[in-house]
Design brief:
single chain; 204 residues; mainly alpha; Glycolipid transfer protein, GLTP; 9 helices; 2% strand
Length: 204
């Protein structure tokens, strides 16, 4: 069974693309919370295409952190229209559940973006190398010795490059264009959030 419509790509099937997540440039590059969480959820289904149970913990980790941020948004919708507002308003209450969840979510998305970027830019490299490389740069330094082997197993379980790209669509040019667009949009939003999270008022 294919995971994309005839003549289309897997990216046509997702609920929301990162390219459709608004950034309010006039308001401290505020990133719209609802759309960002929808796009993050959509991206987690990419791990299903990798076809290995080894990726279940990676996906679960992302979904768990999405839930922490969404729970805060549902509890205080008026204070959570952008991710930045959500964080600053939660920290004012003395709590940091969603704020910490967002830190981990951004790390997971950064890992995904770096994996895919490395693979786009290096057409001769297998996915496992791109994923392992990105894991070392993003999540690994923050993971405990218990979690590292679980994630390392996933990095080794990635399919061959050609098999993965075939699951994204049968027209390679379309797949590359869609993948580049999604990764570029993801990178832009991750960069904004990492910069924000590095600021003193966003920490606890």
């Amino acid at each position: 069974m294919t995971s994309f419509p005839p003549g289309g790509t897997w990216f046509d099937t997702i609920k929301r693309s990162f390219a459709d997540v608004p950034i309010d440039a006039a308001n401290d590059n505020g990133i719209s919370t609802t759309e960002f969480l929808d796009a993050s959820e959509s991206l987690t289904t990419l791990f299903d295409l990798l076809g290995s149970k080894a990726f279940t913990p990676v996906k679960s980790d992302l979904l768990g952190n999405i839930k922490k941020v969404r729970d805060r948004q549902l509890a205080a919708p008026g204070e959570s229209e952008t991710l930045q507002a959500l964080v600053l308003n939660e920290l004012k209450t003395g709590k940091h559940v969603a704020t910490e969840g967002l830190v981990w979510l951004v790390r997971g998305l950064d890992f995904t973006a770096q994996s895919l970027r490395h693979n786009i830019d290096n057409p001769e490299v297998e996915l496992s190398n791109s994923f392992r490389d990105a894991y070392g740069n993003t999540l690994k330094p923050h993971h405990s010795f218990v979690v590292k082997p679980i994630f390392s197993a996933a990095m080794s379980a990635t399919p061959y490059r050609k098999d993965f790209y075939a699951k994204l669509g049968d027209d390679n040019a379309k797949v590359q264009t869609s993948l580049e667009k999604e990764v570029k949009a993801l990178e832009e939003r991750v960069t904004i959030l990492k910069s924000f999270q590095g600021r003193k008022e966003a920490q606890w």
